[in-house]
């Protein structure tokens, strides 16, 4: 519970209607989309503008009260669950698109804008915002930036980091800084913009962002390629790249995933295939046609037993929507869904999928795998039950082995979900102790009181997952 | 002069042939390509591998000896001139392309590889490394990364930062870390890769880099558009972008620059034009043809009095080579050439060029302007004489006003050259005192003894340019 003096100060800054500390509110902000992590904050605070954020941060810094900045809570790394009480900062008032600058191809936004609204606003003027995390319908851009969210278009277009040109940041001491600008080039000092992208809210609060837009691709085509075995699908991915084609989307789904997605979406997905590639290309029509013809040929050369090109925009949208529903579909099957994102160099996908299968077999677990084959970003997803402590112990062991395997193949413990509390105990596998030490020293330098999202990413101590029932 | 104990330790690590401290050597490493900055180091050290770099850094950290990592010294911000003696670290032995991975589209390099060799090695296998700083024929990739170098393709393809996937870094304490990898997505911890890109050697020594390659564009076309006035050229730039075309290159040259480049290159450049745009598009032939036709139309619509499309590859190469020679051509005219890179949002180019003209007029200085119009990155270049102290004082005042104007227009004090010693006194204009304070705290955290390239970018004290004759 907040000390009454602190609560009084916060009320004076944001108004009584923007501080909540009743039990229902605290419970609502006690968890995010990550299974098995939950802890109560002391209050929810909803500032209305940057000045109010700065005021709140100053009070918290003075009283050493933790701040957890939170968007829609769609993250899968327990990045927005409280760990030591404090306040959860939400951006329901700071949710405006402030400007679309068609001459400089930028959009300036507040952190609470939904990702999908950014894309739609860009499309309305013939422009495009490529990053499309799976949760983009409800995720907020502030969260996307803090997690450096990826998505289905990462191979060709990159990730959130590649579309943020500048930030307004409230530092942990309450001072406000501006980084970057409407600038394609800017090397004035350390790259604070990119340091804050993916910092998971541990270095300050992002209160504004200048996003880069690009011309909208003229057209798009979508196809499914079906395989009897996984290696053939992986070889196709390699063959496409070897032919110097970079598709907009190159998704992989294993049979188990296709089956549950079909049960959920009922659009006639090929449940008989052992592996499916969902491939999209966008761009000028001549190029899309040429690329898709070549890709179809490469799929067949690499033992696809069927290739289905979507005939209409609706059919194409149905296919990508089905892929996007994978997590929702999977999470219907068992009480607890643990979705990971071990990532490897593209060339190692077949080995990684095979290793996941063997690890699942070893621990007798139900793990489906789908993900972004084009950029090696896989989502092994375990269907389990958090109440079954014996099984959960096996799940922990299995994922640790999966992370070890990913790093051994030149990969990483997380491609797009972030570290948060979830993968804190595994960060050393990728970053090494000296790397973590460098990160800790930066954290300590910027946030000496440790108020910003404590217990995430680089805290010294290991994790003990809190066993709570899957929401 | 190095203490004999220190020198002995360094000799033991790298061998006697890789430590030089005779006067001729010290003089050779006392300056870079920046006019009017010069100071002697105590020694030049050339390590042969990462272990030797780590050993050297440990010795220097123990004895608090400054280290200035240096590529070819082509930078224009006095980023590699010594300030407090110490050693200049050069990479003549660490100059190998270690691997080209065609499946993952990466190239792994040591810091001493020439940028041009990277591009050529990529082209040899049908791939492409887009960043092309003006000095790419002789610049080294380590320097490019440390300065986050830009170039002529920034608008469409981005800058060095966008093509570095991972680094090997020797920290100031001598420990070696690996960041990133052959990975399109990686969010395991703070983005140390991007923090080190553009850090100007102030946070450690880069000893290896994994670069991202892309498929080589199938074809390229080049044209010149000639204008009676500057505004028309600037309006053309806006019109091209408004038509959702992103050219590979969109360069601006004022009449004075065209004149000196023609005097130098003698290829028949249009010296009668008040402003010239050099425009290139690359990609699939259909798209290049369509874009170039449209661009030609837009140039004419916006009052270009002539548009010249290069008829052959040789003619096109001659044009871009002429543009690349601008600095060399300009520096023949007067003893001292001071080339700056104030950068503004693309929409503000006309205002900025006009302001530069007015400031030159006010101080009665000879300032030519050319640069990357597509990304707002201009290079106002003052032809002067460092021995003329009265004029140099005016030059200082003029550039300060130019930087203020750039920032007032939403721009930055440096788009691609870096801060170094040269722009240290102006960094606050862009980053603000609180921004600089955040940067200083990071520097202090990572390099508590202040050994890495001291006196650059964010040192507390203002600069006094050292008056030395232009080399």
From TrEMBL, chains A, B:
PROSITE patterns: FAD_PCMH
This protein's record includes keyword Oxidoreductase: yes
SUPFAM superfamilies attached to this UniProt entry: FAD-binding/transporter-associated domain-like, FAD-linked oxidases, C-terminal domain
GO molecular function terms noted in the UniProt entry: (S)-2-hydroxy-acid oxidase activity; FAD binding
Cofactor dependency: FAD
GO cellular component, one term: glycolate oxidase complex
UniProt xrefs under Gene3D superfamilies: 3.30.465.10, 3.30.70.2740, Vanillyl-alcohol Oxidase, Chain A, domain 4 (1.10.45.10)
Pfam families with a match to the protein in the record: FAD-oxidase_C, FAD_binding_4
Record keyword Flavoprotein present: yes
Positions of the FAD-binding PCMH-type domain: 37-216
Highest taxon above the source species: Bacteria
InterPro entries linked to this entry: FAD-bd_oxidored_4_C (IPR004113), FAD-bd_PCMH (IPR016166), FAD-bd_PCMH-like_sf (IPR036318), FAD-bd_PCMH_sub2 (IPR016169), FAD-linked_Oxase-like_C (IPR016164), FAD-linked_OxidoTrans_Type4 (IPR051914), GlcD (IPR004490), Oxid_FAD_bind_N (IPR006094)
Record key words, sorted: FAD, Flavoprotein, Oxidoreductase
Family assignment from sequence similarity: Belongs to the FAD-binding oxidoreductase/transferase type 4 family.
NCBIfam families: glcD
Protein name (database record): Putative FAD-linked oxidoreductase
Organism expressing this protein natively: Virgibacillus massiliensis
Phylogenetic classification of the source organism: Bacteria, Bacillati, Bacillota, Bacilli, Bacillales
């Amino acid at each position: 519970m907040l000390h009454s003096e602190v609560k009084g100060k916060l009320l004076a800054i944001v108004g009584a209607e923007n501080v909540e500390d009743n039990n229902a509110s605290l419970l609502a902000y006690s968890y995010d989309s990550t299974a098995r992590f939950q802890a109560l904050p002391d209050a929810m605070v909803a500032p209305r503008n940057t000045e109010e954020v700065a005021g709140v941060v100053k009070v918290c810094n003075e009283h050493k009260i933790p701040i957890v900045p939170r968007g829609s809570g769609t993250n899968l790394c327990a990045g927005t669950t409280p760990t030591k009480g404090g306040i959860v900062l939400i951006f329901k008032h700071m949710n405006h698109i402030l400007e679309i600058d068609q001459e400089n191809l930028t959009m300036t936004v507040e952190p609470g804008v939904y990702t999908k609204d950014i894309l739609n606003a860009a499309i309305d003027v013939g422009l495009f915002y490529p990053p499309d995390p799976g949760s983009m319908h409800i995720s907020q851009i502030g969260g996307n930036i803090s997690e450096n969210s990826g998505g289905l278009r990462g191979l060709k277009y990159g990730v959130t980091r590649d579309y943020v040109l500048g930030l307004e940041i409230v530092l942990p001491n309450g001072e406000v800084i501006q980084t970057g600008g409407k600038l394609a080039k800017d090397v004035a000092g350390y790259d604070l913009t990119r340091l804050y992208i993916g910092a998971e809210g541990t270095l300050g609060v992002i209160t504004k962002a200048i996003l880069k837009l690009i011309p909208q691709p003229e057209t798009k085509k979508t196809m499914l390629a079906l395989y009897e075995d996984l290696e053939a699908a992986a070889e196709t991915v390699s063959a496409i790249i070897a032919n110097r084609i970079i598709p907009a989307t190159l998704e992989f789904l294993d049979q188990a995933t296709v089956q549950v997605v079909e049960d959920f979406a009922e659009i006639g997905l090929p449940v008989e295939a052992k592996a499916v590639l969902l491939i999209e290309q966008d761009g000028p029509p001549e190029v899309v046609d040429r690329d898709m013809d070549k890709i179809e040929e490469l799929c067949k050369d690499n033992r696809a037993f069927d290739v289905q090109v979507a005939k209409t925009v609706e059919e194409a949208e149905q296919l990508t929507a089905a892929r996007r529903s994978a997590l929702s579909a999977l999470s219907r099957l068992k009480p607890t869904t643990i979705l990971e994102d071990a990532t490897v160099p593209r060339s190692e996908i077949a080995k990684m999928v095979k290793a996941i299968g063997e690890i699942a077999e070893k621990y007798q677990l139900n793990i489906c795998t789908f993900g972004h084959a084009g950029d090696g970003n896989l989502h092994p997803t375990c269907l389990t039950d958090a109440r079954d402590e014996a099984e959960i112990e096996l799940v922990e062991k299995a994922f640790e082995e999966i992370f070890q395997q990913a790093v051994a193949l030149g990969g990483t413990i997380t491609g797009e979900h972030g570290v948060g509390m979830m993968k804190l105990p595994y960060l050393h596998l990728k970053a090494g102790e000296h790397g973590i030490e460098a990160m800790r020293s930066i954290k300590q330098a910027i946030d000496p009181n440790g108020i910003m999202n404590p217990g995430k990413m680089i805290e010294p101590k290991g994790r003990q997952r809190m066993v709570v029932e899957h929401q």
